[in-house]
Amino acid sequence: xxxxxxxxxxxxxxxxxxxxxxxxxxxxxxxxxxxxxxxxxxxxxxxxxxxxxxxxxxxxxxxxxxxxxxxxxxxxxxxxxxxxxxxxxxxxxxxxxxxxxxxxxxxxxxxxxxxxxxxxxxxxxxxxxxxxxxxxxxxxxxxxxxxxxxxxxxxxxxxxxxxxxxxxxxxxxxxxxxxxxxxxxxxxxxxxxxxxxxxxxxxxxxxxxxxxxxxxxxxxxxxxxxxxxxxxxxxxxxxxxxxxxxxxxxxxxxxxxxxxxxxxxxxxxxxxxxxxxxxxxxxxxxxxxxxxxxxxxxxxxxxxxxxxxxxxxxxxxxxxxxxxxxxxxxxxxxxxxxxxxxxxxxxxxxxxxxxxxxxxxxxxxxxxxxxxxxxxxxxxxxxxxxxxxxxxxxxxxxxxxxxxxxxxxxxxxxxxxxxxxxxxxxxxxxxxxxxxxxxxxxxxxxxxxxxxxxxxxxxxxxxxxxxxxxxxxxxxxxxxxxxxxxxxxxxxxxxxxxxxxxxxxxxxxxxxxxxxxxxxxxxxxxxxxxxxxxxxxxxxxxxxxxxxxxxxxxxxxxxxxxxxxxxxxxxxxxxxxxxxxxxxxxxxxxxxxxxxxxxxxxxxxxxxxxxxxxxxxxxxxxxxxxxxxxxxxxxxxxxxxxxxxxxxxxxxxxxxxxxxxxxxxxxxxxxxxxxxxxxxxxxxxxxxxxxxxxxxxxxxxxxxxxxxxxxxxxxxxxxxxxxxxxxxxxxxxxxxxxxxxxxxxxxxxxxxxxxxxxxxxxxxxxxxxxxx
Length: 772
Prior knowledge:
By secondary structure, the chain is of the alpha/beta class. About 45% of the residues lie in helices and about 20% in strands. The protein is built from 29 helices and 31 strands. The strands form eight sheets. An eight-stranded mixed β-barrel has the order 23-24-26-27-28-29-30-31, surrounded by four helices. Helix 22 (about 620-630) links the parallel strand 26 (about 605-610) and strand 27. Helix 11 packs antiparallel against helix 12 and helix 11 (about 280-295) runs parallel beside helix 13. The radius of gyration is 41 Å and the shape is elongated.
């Protein structure tokens, strides 16, 4: 019982390993291709590609053709048997080793004619072979054997001329022998080559043999004595129809219709080079499975891809060399496994990279605050946040763009001083970690503060850092909430000129503000304190504004500018986001209707809260405002954050699909920060992808992020989507994005968010209209 549970647990762990699932599913698909022979068309195409390197036939087998010249001279089909007898005698006189006749001699004609042929066959003294064959009645599907007449058969050997036709009349194999009337008869190919096998066993034809290199003589030339003895002496002769007018033809892969005699000769030439050994698809598939298992278990991606590429290349090239030694293998199942496993591994790596980018500071490589927020609460361990107050000034004065060195040194000091296993880095000099639960906070943070009295050295420069700390010791809230509390405490410590401060969730003034923010938000719209700012969206090719993003702003009469990150989440949590969204939509659509008077294609973008999906009459409200202000639907873009709808039901997304059908554009905002990016693209009726600024701002520093942004642009274009890059703050970033083929950019390099009055000069045609 216990052993069974252990084995069951091991199997579950093994199955949960993504590498095991990759090998299982790709191996299963490859196995089905092999068992069901689904890859045969691909196998044949690969084989034909290898046969482009042609080589010559041995020259030991000569075709004597009943060609157009012969038909023109004798004016009778089939040739009279006294002519065929004369041909046999002439070949014997020229020293032919053996003579094979690809004709049906099952019927008699005139006695004198038949006797002439029988006598000529007798004079060959057993060196003649005539054809036995079968036909299948098209109505009854009955096999009918056809033997040469007795008067011919007693003077010659018998050989089968039947072949197996594949799709479109192509012939890929010849039989070693077939059974007629209870007896086995060798095929012409087997008799000509001297290589024999079991009845029904098939040998593949080597189509890398150039058929033009097979010696060909006209029967008319042989009969009139113009053929030199050396062309025939000591050689095997195959007499048959070479004029396509006689109908004895088959489709030769890559060459089209060919006389049937070539199939016998090519089959014989194949066997003369050595009895073909068919290894099938099983052994290559097992080798591919072993190599794929080794590759996906290699820790270094470069080695993994090198092995996959080497294995795939070997699978494509090896058959070429094996076929030169009469060894045939089938490689399509192996290729499917290698390509499938490689693609699955690449996709897994891509998704892993996306997850890592979402939880990693792009500039320094340290885990970011998103990673901290996803970390489960570690019991009653205090959450400490450090804020470097002069971080931005230090970064601005670094001798080179070396923020990474600065951040890593700060994190190292914090980790040494706190015994923290992981230090997380946020933007603008924020660091956070879980301190040991048994630690004395006063002593601990005092020691950390002392550490930072020593300047930090970056290259040849030394910098003094001003650091304050905030602590949240709550054990009943989420990590994200505790982080917010610790940062708020650090800000308070800085404003009070203290080294550190503990977060107090019940503090009077802040509590009063938090409780009143919602009611004040309700009156802010009517009082004119809430307004909409517009940030231009710039076409990369023309460098002109083609639209703008509407951004809500709140100017409080006493507190001044209130951050959207403060009041928007509060509105979402309290159910007031609908009213706020209606306000922004109303102002943005009205502004868009004014903009299109000067530029008919000008587009206005509005962010949607995830709380609105499925709970707010979004479709009705948008269409009502579009109709009210006369803004065409295609001039409005609704931006939905990538993580907003990943967990929502399809019914909640239905309004977006209906709006898209009416012409409204849908944009995927903050692309790259979610966990199921491609699934999200598939579910959302998007026409635009907006790459998150955290990736855009790193394209000049990180090769991996530059590659990710480039691949995202290519993916979006392949899906027919436009690409917007936000957070463009310098010329170098803009030029990099332009070279990648990005369509639209926005950011401080071009313009900050502004009032509509300040936006007007950015609208194409506005200045001209004003001048007029």
